[in-house]
Design a protein that fits this description.
135 residues; flat
């Protein structure tokens, strides 16, 4: 612990930029993590990637939910008419996924982000290329 604070103070004393030093450390840590992930079997990589996606999605969903003024949808969901198509009602309920308070949005976006990152990770491993590259 003392070495990190002494190296920061040494960088400041020498005129170095502590932000650049910290950025370099983060990049080195990221490169080490990516190298470790590349050596793992597909199921470990998919699980770790999905977990990271869930955490990121939950944080973003909570932030987005806390930024809304009323904590939910401004319009209450009306009851469906008695002769409504069940598929139309189900799709309308799915559109309400982003309505709700911060915890509801955090949960919903965490699930969507985690599923997306997990599926993308497995597909990238199977195909050997990013989906965005295409043909």
């Amino acid at each position: 612990m003392a070495s990190s604070s002494s190296s920061s103070s040494a960088a400041q004393a020498l005129g170095g930029n502590p932000l650049e030093e910290w950025t370099g450390r983060v990049k080195a840590l990221e490169a080490g993590f990516r190298a470790w992930m590349a050596k793992q079997p597909i199921h470990v990589e998919a699980a770790v990637t999905t977990a990271v996606g869930v955490v990121q999605g939950g944080a973003l969903g909570g932030l987005m939910g806390s930024l809304t003024a009323d904590g939910g949808s401004p319009f209450p969901m009306p009851p469906p008419p008695p002769n409504a198509n069940p598929q139309a009602v189900a799709s309308f309920k799915q559109a309400q996924a982003l309505a709700g308070g911060p915890l509801v949005q955090a949960r919903n976006i965490a699930v969507m982000t985690g599923a997306n990152t997990g599926i993308s990770c497995v597909m990238r491993r199977i195909r050997g290329a990013e989906d965005i590259q295409g043909r």
